[in-house]
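PT: before anyone asks, these are the final sequences, not the draft ones from last week. 224 residues across everything. Please model them as a single complex and drop the result in this thread when it's through.
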Amino acid sequence: GQQVMQIPQYQHVQEGEDFTTYCNSSTTLSNIQWYKQRPGGHPVFLIQLVKSGEVKKQKRLTFQFGEAKKNSSLHITATQTTDVGTYFCAGPGAGSYQLTFGKGTKLSVIP
Amino acid sequence: NAGVTQTPKFQVLKTGQSMTLQCAQDMNHEYMSWYRQDPGMGLRLIHYSVGAGITDQGEVPNGYNVSRSTTEDFPLRLLSAAPSQTSVYFCASTPNRGGDIQYFGAGTRLSVL
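LR: through. Structure below.
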């Protein structure tokens, strides 16, 4: 079945440093979504990318969808303590109506 | 709109007990799902429903039952709780097909002793 892999599993950064998490799917994705889960909270939708090579920005967050639509990345510039949490990527396989989640990258920010 | 509401927020069970986790949404979404989240395992799909009266299994369905009698409600039943079912359970809904944006409830934290 479809697999979605994320690296790294954990990342500790000093406040102000940049952070990147990478997502790779074993199959082509019709779209990719990113979610953020704060400690003790539930996943919250951040963004959806649909087009090959698409890049979207939300303030300090930059999301990219690969040309082959099998990989994606989330980059945070100048991390803040409010960025703490686990970031998940998720995507349906081509023709699939189910969403497969990566295992997430847990970000810790040291003040 | 309340969105997706899950009850209870916390539950402790003894091995062999049964219980139902409730999930309700007021967004008139057709597609609803149940996930479990375990440390280091991400979110794994248990069961899903594409509309009232229609359910199907996800990645980890064993030990769980679901039904969908109305668009709003999608309860998850644990038939005979086992320690391996200790987890955080999230219900989610989406307005369109299952591969679209998911709206999650706050979760139920379940411990099975």
